[in-house]
Design goal:
The chain has 3 helices and no strands. It is an all-alpha fold.
Length: 65
């Protein structure tokens, strides 16, 4: 599996803050629905099924200690 470059730097913290703000005040089910919609929108932006499968595998993998 390939490494994912840090394409957000130096805006990683800004993205995280915006993501948390998008979830602010939502019930769990609404927050999960937002995540599902966001994943589908971002997948459409990536548009490469092979790359999306690589990223899903990476996201599913347990972090190394």
């Amino acid at each position: 599996m390939t490494d994912t470059p840090d394409n957000l730097s130096p805006h990683s913290d800004d993205f995280y803050a915006a993501l948390m703000q998008a979830h602010d005040g939502l019930e769990l089910a609404d927050s999960q629905a937002l995540n599902a919609r966001l994943v589908l929108l971002l997948a459409n932006e990536v548009g490469d099924l092979t790359r999306l499968k690589q990223l899903m595998d990476k996201a599913r993998a347990k972090p190394k200690p």
